[in-house]
Amino acid sequence: RLWCTQRVDFYCITMKKIGSKGQIHGHDEVKVKKNQLSQSKRLAKARGQPVAEAPETYDYIIVGAGTAGCVLAHQLTVGTNNRVLVIENGPPDAHANDRITIPFLEATVWFEPSLDYGLYTADQEILAQYQPGNLPLFGYHYPRVKVWGGQSSSNSMIVIRGRPDNYDDWGKVGPQFHGVWDWKVCLESFKACEKNARKDIDPAYHGFKGKYHVQDQVKTYKVLDLTLKSLLEMGLKHNTDFNTGHQAGAGFFQVNQKNGRRAPQYNYLKSALKSRVEPTPADHLPSPPLGNGDAKMAGLNVRSDSLVTRVLFEDPHNKTRATGVEYLHGKFLYHAIAAKEVILCAGALHSPQILMLSGIGDSYKLNKIGVNCLVDNKNVGQHFKEHAIVPLTASTTLESQVHNPIYTSNGAQLGAYVKMDADGKLPDLKADQSKADMQYNIAADCWDADILGKGFTGNALTVGCCFNEPLSEGWLEIVSADPTVQPVIYLNSFSHPDDMKKMISGVRFAKKLLEHPTLKKEAGVENLSFSDKYGEPSKWGHGDTDAELEVYIRYKAKTSFHPMCSARMGADASKGVVDAYCKVYGTTGLRVIDASVFPDYISGNLNAPTAMLAHRMGELIKKGH
Questions:
Q1: What are the angstrom distances between the C-alpha of 475 and each of 145, 228, 340, 341, 598?
Q2: Using one digit for the tens of pLDDT, what is the confidence trace for 145-164?
Q3: In whole angstroms, what separates CA 118 from the centre of its chain?
């Protein structure tokens, strides 16, 4: 109860620090920048000295102990004779154990300065669809954490796989992809990963012996029960399992938890290590050799608090063969050698950054910042996709997370999938819903910083309109050869006109939901987003026209923090960065295995698909592919 109370206070204080542009101001940001400056200074000093000690050699070096890195480390270690090194920029999970494992406290992990990368999206001007000129797309803080488990240690725990056609499309990327990727083979990896606690769930679609823990919500709110009732009365079907390949309908999400506590994918890493490892401050770590690092067991070595600065290409007979990595640990630079492969699992923001710092990317841009280009591939950092989300907030007379927190709550406990109208009208629920493209994340909480900033303190209901099938593409840029300088994220949301039309349709449906008689009568729901007191009538009126809704969307849209496609699979180097087996075009001994290689959007949350990808690739690598 004490932790939950602290989380509520922290969350409200943090949200009030977020200005109209979504920027976070104050002490937290200062600490993040201080941490980055310290790391940058250590790197500059280390580069003036010889590399510390002789490098150790491993079969595989995995960069990143997030979901993909943890699953892959387990795959390549357990039951093999492989020597595997995992290098993680952050600390072991015990550094923030209580906040990680208690689901309700995820926001406190997002804004922890020692764990936060300090990423921001760029301010942009995007052409408006329903009025002349441009409308702003404001930049904001983009939480990504560095810790064992990566985003699985701080996400909303929603377990969604996407739709079968997402994965069947992977198999159509090029001839080499046939049979390697499709829904059938991916389903087997999903099942192999999963340990589902629901006893009556269909075994044709679910697994029960894996390490990816999945369970039903422990407890929900009455206002969410009434929201589900309203959705069904509006014409949606009740869907008790979104992961059979049929997403359409409404129901409560299953979550990545075990016994009501978050179950991050560092469980894979710990299983491979066969021991619990507590954090050790970097400055107190023993000096090399590397085997004396944070954790070592049965051929697996985990090096925490270590920043990979570049991939090494030092084979005199093959200048494009990855031979290892350089990394900063404490005050020194180290080299580690990979006898077989270097595998980047640093995520869709940092894997492209490492590629570019290593000379793989657009030659013109790399040369401008002083990086020698090894492989000219203009796709690196491009084709970036995200799921834009727009919240609608209502007050309610019933209990909510604001004043009556449920510590097992993942936030958005209730979900719905609906096919949007292509012209921005209300969706037709009688039409074919098999390819529903809007995911509604519904929480008994208030996510709107502006409404909180105007003094709202009551119980709340939020309907988050999350568009799962964006045609708009953004990009990432590195502005410095210094690896401590974070990449700049250009979301480019709604740059494709169809995306705005679909989002307008989605917001219209959410407005209709909040006006439903059941919610108004039994939950006392009142829409705040378009009210005179808590809305902005001078900017977007009451959301009655396409033009007003477009303005509202531009001001309120954030992302779901689902970055993907920034080093995507492609039929060849002109279309992508990696091949069907995630090997980087133009190199040997180098792969990328994380959400950056998805060839296109996934219709849902990314954690389960990322775990599936790593599991599948682990199997393929062990088979010699």
A1: 20, 37, 31, 27, 15
A2: 999 999 998 899 999 999 99
A3: 15
